[in-house]
Amino acid sequence: MKEKKQNILIIGAGLCGSLLALRLGQRGFNVTVYEKRPDLRKVNINAGRSINLAFSNRGIKAMKLVGLENKVKQLCIPMNGRMIHDEKGNTFLSPYSGRDYEYINSISRGDLNALLLTEAEKHENVTIHFNKKCESVDFEKTTALFKDYQTNTQFIEDADAIIGTDGAGSALRKSYYLGKKFLFSFSQDYLTHGYKELIILPEGKNNFKIFKNALHIWPRGNFMLIALPNLDGSFTVTLFLSYNEGEFNFSNLNTDEKVLEFFKKEFPDALAHMPNLLEDFNNNPTSPLGTVKCSPWFYKGNTLLMGDAAHAIVPFYGQGMNASFEDVVEFDKVLDENLENWEATFKAYESSRKKNTDAIADLAIDNFYEMRDHVANPIFQEKRKLEMDLEKAFPNEYASKYSLVTFNEDLGYHDAMLKGRAQDKAILNMLAEGKINSKDDLKSILKIITKETQEILEEDKVAKLK
Amino acid sequence: MKEKKQNILIIGAGLCGSLLALRLGQRGFNVTVYEKRPDLRKVNINAGRSINLAFSNRGIKAMKLVGLENKVKQLCIPMNGRMIHDEKGNTFLSPYSGRDYEYINSISRGDLNALLLTEAEKHENVTIHFNKKCESVDFEKTTALFKDYQTNTQFIEDADAIIGTDGAGSALRKSYYLGKKFLFSFSQDYLTHGYKELIILPEGKNNFKIFKNALHIWPRGNFMLIALPNLDGSFTVTLFLSYNEGEFNFSNLNTDEKVLEFFKKEFPDALAHMPNLLEDFNNNPTSPLGTVKCSPWFYKGNTLLMGDAAHAIVPFYGQGMNASFEDVVEFDKVLDENLENWEATFKAYESSRKKNTDAIADLAIDNFYEMRDHVANPIFQEKRKLEMDLEKAFPNEYASKYSLVTFNEDLGYHDAMLKGRAQDKAILNMLAEGKINSKDDLKSILKIITKETQEILEEDKVAKLK
Lengths: 466, 466
Known about the structure:
2 copies of one chain form a homodimer. In chain A, 39% of the residues lie in helices and 23% in strands. The first copy, chain A, is α/β, with parallel strands linked by helices.
């Protein structure tokens, strides 16, 4: 720790790994990164991965840390709200915040990853190797076994510490689980729904066929379609649908006729922009939606899990990448504390961080139901309308759950969840009981919501005898 | 299904497996059971397993189903409440219910298992093999691979359906997980605490050194000791303690002096009855406390998980065995529906059952904190006292969470949890705010609790937009 010239081995050069390599490089560590895929700056390897992502304050905070805020801004398309498409093709925009300066961004995963790799490699103490897959980690010896895809040979690397940023299918996490050397709590939870990526191509060159600055949603109760804009004028469209349940599902959408019937019935306005639907539907994989939690993230001072490897979440809060980037910010903060060794550092990092990544995992599941279903519910819509009014009228006093999670990067996810859930409960119940009416004076509404939220939090505490 | 002469292979002849074998035998199926341990009626194999268990209404309901209620009763020692031992050696009894006829029982795991095995084997269509360990299950072919510990050879068995009742470390569940043939949600969660079994020997022959008809607890905030009576006058004592945290923990209790110092300071009255403490402490293993959840429990109509194999829980609600026995009762109910095939049967069983086993898993974690910590909290004690008064005064109208879970065997765990938690929250908050006072008229207290509980349930529903 005192000794900056320590050798750090990072497994995985995805978004989290490449940012971590950059930051540790900036801090003066000797960093070696091994990535199983080819260098995405040289080969197109997008197939099967979501090609754009929602990027917001927590991610931007990380970019500020490494001095890349301006470069990243050029890759971003602001999305000011959800554009809701109903069954009849009507649309309305539901803003993400009542404050104009709060919005999320659509960004290309590949472009962002490429930028981070290039910036990391500018440091002579950072080396990145591609086409080298981690097979397993000997966490007692602090060594990792790799397979070189180019030479088809295996080799072992050691380091002072190994950090696994190797994603939801992490080899390091698998070694923890299979090693049975310590009590390893672990969960993988799949939704009954999967997803498939489709595309709305640009109108001519760089012209957006639907409104550019929104995250489009076609909520249909038990399934939904969403679309995020890309810089080239296209939209990446994602269908979230049950594998086996309901009238339409991935199992029974097994002919072109059925796929067309489904889109004609449920998403006619989207279908009008997707002449390429059948080709995409047949060629693109159907992928599962899973949440991974585990603990401990570290083994002694030898190894540590970060990013999706430690906490993979479903995409419905648009926080997957943001949470992983925030990991690096939080880890960096712990490094500033200059603890006595890696074990103390890893322990301090997990103990402050885990409650927050657990919270965003749960919030992301909540939002699955919210986006799919609740956004079409009148009382939910009334709540959102009221919250927008409150955010506009009291920009410094009121923040919705969505704002707390998305735009309040200095508040941890856990606290954002507790306060946001209590606030939602207060508003929904008071609306349902007629205790507040959106026509009432906003100042008095704010007061009563604040009071009721506080009471809910207090009652929950008493119930847990805390 | 129509065809009763189907061959059912059961993996594991523990409590759940032997009860299931008995019930399926009674229903006319051809049942073959393979158990990895020796026959416990012939060999003493208690070491390392908890040797007595809490047995209550849900378990008794299962015994009624198979006609063993009376035989089992002879193995039971009623425990009417928790006998709380404070630091100074003072004791007070906190009854489990305000209704005299509601109590739990201490029962020997071995005696109960032996009875079930013997009863199952009375059916000529039931065969039980011992010393045969399941290594893996090919759930696509409906075959299981066994190792015979006596001949040290392997063999494969097939069946029309295979049911894994092979406990928390289930080989069938492991095959689901490692097979990666379908999306398998799975979690294993360990508490930071482990446990160690100790013993209070009888005073002379069959004389109980401490009060016989109670579950004794020495709650100490971050750790606790409990003791359950055995028919021979002894008590099985269990220490629940953190592995690594706190002043005293399993890692630092590494000399006889430290163990004695710990018991002298924290459990002097128990220590007085345990001259054999050091020997037991050194000889007996320290075991982890884990919760396992998973889904799906079945693969097509081929295989099914039941009991701890599907849902291992921590022991703090005394419901582990009761929940596994209730599995058999619920499975039996689904068999009565005569669905078209095993797949439909397994599916119907899991879809009605899983929410309840998830609930008891969560309730058992709640009770860890309650037993260890809250039972010594004044407001919690006031609640318990009030609830006992309500149960006495209104035996048909009021039931505490504990009663709902333990004594209301016709109410599912899930509903018991929702109602019980809301009720606890209502009472604790009203006591904290002085809205009810245990000196008030009981009838009016009941009314206000009922109303507040209903409101909490309603508000939770609205918050979830249900």
